[in-house]
Design a protein that fits this description.
Layout lengths: L8 H9 L6 H18 L3 H6 L5 E4 L6 H12 L3 E5 L15 H21 L1 H16 L3 E2 L11 H6 L4 H8 L2 E2 L2 H16 L6 E7 L11 H4 L4 H8 L4 E7 H16 L2 H15 L1 E5 L17 H13 L2 E4 L2 E4 L4 E6 L11 H5 L3 E4 L5 H9 L5 H10 L3 E5 L1 H17 L6 H10 L1 H6 L6 E5 L1 H13 L1 H7 L1
Parallel strand pairs: 1-10, 1-11, 2-7, 7-10, 12-13
Antiparallel strand pairs: 3-4, 5-6, 8-9
């Protein structure tokens, strides 16, 4: 279990506050759910098995922070996270993704997390090996001529697979390193470490990355078989040439050398364990698979989809290419607007698996002002940084920010309520001309006032038809 998981609920909420405005009730619910996971792992093994996570159902309009809360929560503790849409799944017998794919995707996320953590542990060693490898390529030894190249009985077979057998033999051929070459390599290593050659272009040979066969309803993957890995073991490692800078070459080689130092079996075993104890699956649009108002004329049964999702949420074993994953302790967060339906329209068994219900509040004008200015990734900060690359300093007056927030609130009230996403469309429209002209303006300060806001988008807001289509 990740060390970061011992954060107190108050600390988790404080971290979420840096990115998400308001919604304190939802933040508290997810913080408690996360802390309970840490508490469970402090108990004896017999008791651990008995305590299941209290899954959460978030209810509220789009764009008010449901997905962002779950995603940031996973980032805070480096937990595997995957977002799925309930409407993408279909019941058995229909074309579409099978529900177990959400667990396979979550395990894939865990593998990437564990691999990144293990790479960081061996980074120093891998980097030294990468520097030595690049120095060897920049100052190659004297290759002995291989007379067996023409007699290779597998030449035609390798060529049909897109592999040059002569290239393979060249790489395997012994080389002679003279004292001069050895000295040259040491000099190159020293220069590379000091960053003196960072911008120099070099041609390197790297292992070709295997192309994925795809996971959409792949029956082999559903049986826990990784066809890519199986074929990769049968096929010799193909090298491809790339022209990159020395700095980029070191990064590429460091990654390759780190992977050689990492034990794949240990990585996969740890990833499965991380998935089972720390995984978070966010099921969006769960309200869309309720049966309310359903006209079932040959369509996929929405109740059927619910019944297919139910075993995964209840706890079941899913075969993945990294091993069998048990979902008993995976945290599920359901989310939906529930405009046309209500949580009680879900089948009773599924309702019971989401005991914590949190209703998120619609965003007010004051919330929009905070969203524009307070978070670490506030929209106004983003646009100021973007235009700063053109040596233009954009200054928003407080009155202009309040006017933008007021417009966002008004448009949400009179058209569809899309929450904070409305700010994106308004700011893009407001700054469109400035973003276009910026490269030709050289440097200077541009002040965005309330009058500027009204001149640019005021007429669109007044015309309801225009605002419906443009904002």
């Amino acid at each position: 279990m990740n060390i970061k998981s011992n954060l107190k609920p108050r600390e988790i909420v404080e971290k979420l506050d840096k990115y998400i405005v308001g919604q304190s009730e939802a933040k508290k619910a997810v913080a408690v759910a996360l802390r309970n996971r840490y508490r469970r792992l402090q108990l004896e093994e017999d008791m651990q098995k008995e305590i299941t996570p209290k899954n959460i159902l978030m209810i509220g309009a789009t764009g008010i922070g449901k997905t962002e809360i779950a995603r940031r929560l996973a980032d805070i503790v480096d937990a595997p996270f995957v977002k799925v849409e309930a409407t993408k799944f279909t019941e058995v017998g229909y074309i579409g993704r099978d529900v177990e794919s959400m667990v396979r995707d979550l395990t894939e996320s865990a593998v990437q997390l564990v691999r990144t953590q293990q790479r960081s542990k061996v980074h120093a060693q891998a980097e030294n090996r990468a520097i030595a490898r690049l120095a060897k390529e920049l100052a190659p030894g004297i290759k002995k001529e291989n007379k067996q190249q023409a007699q290779n009985p597998f030449s035609s077979m390798f060529q049909n697979m897109g592999i040059d057998p002569n290239q393979m033999m060249e790489e395997e051929a012994a080389e002679t390193v003279t004292p001069e070459i050895s000295t040259k390599r040491e000099e190159l290593k020293d220069q590379i470490k000091k960053g003196l050659l960072d911008n120099r272009e070099v041609e390197i040979k790297i292992s070709e990355k295997q192309q994925s066969m795809g996971t959409m309803n792949n029956p082999l993957e559903q049986m826990g078989i990784d066809l890519n890995q199986t074929l990769g073991q049968m096929k010799p490692n193909k090298k491809v040439k790339r022209t990159v800078t020395v700095k980029e070459a070191i990064e590429i080689f460091t990654e390759e050398e780190a992977d050689k130092l990492i034990n794949l079996e240990d990585t996969h075993a740890e990833a499965v364990k991380l998935t089972e104890n720390s995984g978070i699956i966010f099921i969006d649009e769960i309200d869309k698979i309720t049966s309310r108002g359903q006209n079932n004329s040959g369509q996929v049964s929405r109740e059927g989809v619910q019944r297919d999702i139910l075993p995964i949420v209840e706890g079941s074993s899913v075969r993945t290419k990294y091993g069998t994953v048990n979902t008993d302790h995976v945290l599920f967060i359901g989310s939906g607007a529930f405009h046309l339906s209500k949580p009680s329209d879900l089948i009773p068994e599924l309702q019971g698996r989401f005991p914590i219900r949190v209703e998120l509040q619609d965003l007010t004008k004051e919330d929009f002002v905070k969203i524009l200015t307070e978070p670490h990734n506030a929209l106004i900060k983003q646009y100021r940084s973007l235009l700063g690359t053109e040596n233009i300093e954009v200054v928003f007056t407080m009155e202009s920010i309040e006017r933008i927030a007021e417009i966002a609130y008004e448009v949400n009230e009179t058209t569809d309520n899309i929450g904070a996403r409305r700010l994106h469309t308004i700011l893009e429209r407001l700054l469109e001309e400035l973003l276009f002209e910026a490269p030709d303006m050289q440097m200077g300060e541009v002040k965005i006032t309330e009058k500027y806001v009204d001149e640019k988008i005021g007429h669109i807001v007044e015309n309801k038809d225009l605002s419906r289509y443009i904002l």
